[in-house]
Amino acid sequence: MASLMDQMRKMVGLRPQQEQVTPREGAGAFHARREAYLACEDEAQKAALLTQMIRALPDTLFLAAMCYEGEDSTASVQDDKLHATTGARRLYAAQQQIVERGNPGYRHAATADKRRIHLRTLVYQKTKEEWVPLFTDFAELMPVFGRQSRVTLISFEEAREMAGPCSGLVINPASRPILLSNDALDGAL
User: Fold this and answer.
1) Distance CA 96, CA 153 (A)
2) Cα dist. 150→35, 117, 157 in Å?
């Protein structure tokens, strides 16, 4: 039975407080759950792990291929700077070792660029759906985009907001992808 507090939260349109990811779980909460999810073969347990993984996303930092507004998103760009969004800066110190794995020499941009960014997308040819790819580290990003794209450090929340018109987000599309449709995210977050 739901607690009185949960019932009141539901009446005002808020979700009950359960299994909330807190900073105390550590910076690697999403990554630990992702590994357990990918290794799991039991469907019920896998569904529970997916829910926990999705709830850990707001505190997770990713890499994404990007371009600036007005640039051709399909053009090859040589840029060895790692561009950080505002939301990424608060997460970077705790997740630096995770996200920097496999870095082929990108250096942090010394100054923030004021131009608006757009995340590059992938289109699945079978369905013609457009997805925004996010990467847990450089080792996952390099096989997809190589060094022919600008790269940003971005918080999950910022990426989700920018992916609005797309079908959703796909994490690590080259290895063992996790598709997170907008509908699935709306129901879980």
Assistant:
1) 10
2) 28, 10, 20
CA dist., res. 175 & res. 48, Å (int): 22
Helices (H), the chain: 4-11, 29-39, 43-56, 86-99, 138-145, 156-162, 182-188
Give the span between the Cα atoms of 180 and 134, in whole angstroms.
Answer: 11
Name residue, tokens 């990713």: 62
pLDDT digits (tens, 9 = 90+) for 143-165: 999 999 999 999 999 999 999 88
Longest dimension (CA), the chain: 57
151 contacts 67 by C-beta, under 8 angstroms: no
Q: How far is CA 49 from CA 99, 160, 172, in A?
A: 22, 20, 17
Strand partners, 84: 153
Two tokens, residue 46? 């896998």
Position of tokens 């053009």?
75
Pull the structure tokens for residue 32. Answer: 């630990």
Residues 104-138: b if buried by 16+ CB within 10 A, e if exposed = eebeebeeeeeeebebbbbeeeeeebebbbbbbbb
Nearest-CA neighbor of 58 among 102, 27, 104? 27
pLDDT of res. 143: 95
Contact between 108 and 79 under an 8 Å Cβ cutoff? The reply is: no
**pLDDT at position 134 over 90:** yes
Size of the chain, expressed as the number of residues it contains: 189
